[in-house]
User: Fold this.
Amino acid sequence: VDKEIAAVQDHMGVMTRESPADQLPLVGAGRGEIEVVYRRSYAAFLRVATGILGDEAEAADAVQDAFASALRSRRGFRRAGSVDGWLWRMVVKAARKRRIGRMGRPLHLHVGEVPGLSQSAGDVTLRALVAALPERQRLVLFLRYYADLDYRTIGGALGIRPGTVAATLSAAHRTIRAQLEETDD
Amino acid sequence: MTDFDPVVAAAMDRALPQLERVDGDWDDVLRRAKSPAHSERSRRRRTLGIAVVIALTVASAAEAGVLGDAARAFLDVLSPASPPATQILAKAGHRFDRELRAMADAFPSKVSGSAPKFHLTEARQVATIPTERGLVAWDAAVDRSGRGYCQVAVRHGLSLGGDCQVTDTHGYAISLATSGDTPGRVMVTGLAPSEVAIVTITSRSEARRARRLGDFFFATIGSGSPITITEASSERVVLRRSRFSDPVCTSGVSRFKGLPLLAGAGFTYCAEGGVIARFPAARALAPVCPATGCGLTTIENNRHASASPPAGAPVTPIELLDTIRTGLHTSLIRSARLGKPPSAAGPGRPWLYVGLGRAHGASGVLGEFYAHLLAAAYASQAPREQLPQIGGLVGFAAAAPSCQKSPTSPRCFAPFGYGRIHMQPGASIGTATGATSLESDIRLGLATAHLRPVSITFVHTVGGLVPVVVAGAITEEPVDVAAEWDTIFGSTPAGYLEIVGDDGRPLNATAHVDALGEGFSWRRAS
Assistant:
């Protein structure tokens, strides 16, 4: 019975306890929690990873690796932020590592090209604009528009404060809008 | 929201349209989590690691013949069949092999062709001898970094892969937790009932910066009462508790995952869920494990096991050590560690003790311990009827030049290995006349070398009489034992010479054992 209780608690993200008297701070993420986020937001994870890597197949592999890593280290999650933010951080980290490893040089982000999809000249221009942004601005853009995350979650994923997220996003907006308006003109 | 720019959003969406409804493969995530080797990157890393190890093995096999085991050990770490690999484990395992490799390089260079090689497996066996004093063992599942890894030697918490220091609730050291080379295994020694200990585990990173992995609390309580072992993270967050409701699982000596645990009368072991705990035994104790309890099939009560090697059958050194260890009593091990030096043990015992190599004035804590352990084990524990079958043991330990500042560091003392000297059944023991003649020659040699005899003992082996000589230095001049060897022992094929100072502490030692059973020859350069 104890093993079954422990398994359930582990699944739900509660560490094993002996009795109600042993009320301890919640630590760790449950496997069930992680699975819920995975199933709910897999498409968003894949889209952001694809944006970072520019390759959907490799992005899918990165997402799988990130969640596998999250499962292995779930007991170390301190719940200082949301599980979503923590998992987003894992995915972004995994994608960036792959990007760096593949290119053999520091991260150089692109708005990905989806094979078979016709791209207009404007899209190409936007890719160039996004690629020219600083790394943090690019990541914030991806997480904001491709994953539709709020500031807090983006901050959790990138390890920065929500206020910094807002400022970074605003700067990215200004840059891109200005460039797009120049292109339209 | 002001943070959402529709123009940018539309452009971003055009650049990378929303993907069609896609579902991830959760089962694949679970497989990868269980075995990191599933990922392509991990596979590449493993392949590279294996290639490096194979290259190193091939390159050095002819030179020393020891790295093959290192490679195998490393491959074990990389093996998919091993427990889920963690970063800590891999690094520690690799480091452990490197350390042992360095130890092997410090061994005597003069090794005969038929000499048994110093294998890592043997070293590990030796290194786990202190562990065998362990009365309690459990898996140390470490928070965040996977499983802990510890390799701790005597007295200092310093280890090859990690530190395990056991303290009581007041912070005073009780004992060392020793894990041998078994990843995730921590053992605690010297705990009495009702004592509480804290095992602090740290790992050593590549940058040699100690990293604290966690604290593990341990407590023992009286016989017949339940016991709880609590594992906690470094933040004192309880990770797991294991409760033993049935304290009586097995009595006598237990074996856990292939590693024998020393015990004796007075203690009972109980294993449950991968944890072995010690309980004070009562006279009426008997194995009363419930059908669902004590669920480790690897536990054996080796009171019924064969305590002696089969007569005439070849026995490896490891097997011999296992035989001795399984026959040891815990209290005798303690007395061995703190007892008389082996050179002062009584004559007439047909045993050959472990020699302690010394260099640069360092004291051989670890080697001394092994020497005492084996000496006491053999001299005190081996049944009389077994003595003709076991001729003796030979072992060495060496001190590295870098150990002058911290001579008690276990890094300074590498067990050279050990070998068994076979005694043929029915072989004749050396005669008193032969011993007397040889002793006269040795005394003459000592005088020639300006040494005074402290004790001269002979060990009877199939190869003849083996003189064990402890001599005192007449002057404070350093004695080159290797140079004086021929003067003292002449053509005697085997012997052991130890030079002691006025305080009886050894100053130098050397040994030359040859043509004895397995015919190995080690001689340490002074």
Notes: Chain A is about 70% helix and 0% strand.
